[in-house]
Amino acid sequence: MATDSPILVVGLGNPGTIYAQTRHNAGAMVIDELLDRATPMPAQLSVHKKTNTEVAELAAGRLMPRRTILARTRGFMNVSGGPVKALASYYGTKPADIHVIYDELDLDFGQFKLRLGGGDHGHNGLKSVTKSLGTSDYHRLAVGIGRPPGRQAPADYVLKPFSKQEFAELPIVLADVADGLLEYCSPE
């Protein structure tokens, strides 16, 4: 079935350099990996003021078989839903063509899982997206960050940078996650 509306891929995270390398920004980091893969040259995000996001509009074949919008929200994780809904409305993208990438405590570091619909697993970014879209029937790409050690609060854990060992492995993990998404979106 042909469609004129693009696939929308949104990486969740928090704005600013203070959060750039934290576990909570794993979704935004995957967007950077995808931007680097857009051929013939890396794609760049530009500010999309109407939606409070940064976007890169990619023609069909530049990364995926269909026109694709790569995006990062510019607000905080817990209010991601408004910008995601605004993007979907602006581009005419249905929930079934939306892919939200986020960090997941219940997956070990290095694992990822892609699913259509389902619950939010306590993730405030997903709660916000589901509430704003009025449906849970969108794709979620969970990037495993693992559980916090000891008694560390999950809210503190997600806002901390990756460990030295994790940071060394992160480029491979992000590449694997991007590979999984591209394979999922490009059925043969």
TrEMBL record:
Residues at the site labelled Stabilizes the basic form of H active site to accept a proton: D103
PROSITE patterns with a match to the protein in the record: PEPT_TRNA_HYDROL_1, PEPT_TRNA_HYDROL_2
Biological process according to GO: protein quality control for misfolded or incompletely synthesized proteins; rescue of stalled ribosome
Protein name listed in UniProt: Peptidyl-tRNA hydrolase
First-tier enzyme category under EC: hydrolase
Coiled-coil ranges (or none): none
Superkingdom of origin organism: Bacteria
Record field: catalytic activity: an N-acyl-L-alpha-aminoacyl-tRNA + H2O = an N-acyl-L-amino acid + a tRNA + H(+)
Gene Ontology MF annotations: peptidyl-tRNA hydrolase activity; tRNA binding
Record's GO cellular component terms: cytoplasm
UniProt entry keywords in alphabetical sequence: Cytoplasm, Hydrolase, RNA-binding, tRNA-binding
Site (Discriminates between blocked and unblocked aminoacyl-tRNA): N14
Subcellular location: Cytoplasm
The protein's Enzyme Commission number: 3.1.1.29
Main localization category: cytoplasm
NCBIfam families for the chain: pth
Name of the encoding gene: pth
Similarity remark: Belongs to the PTH family.
Residues involved in tRNA binding: Y19, F76, N78, N124
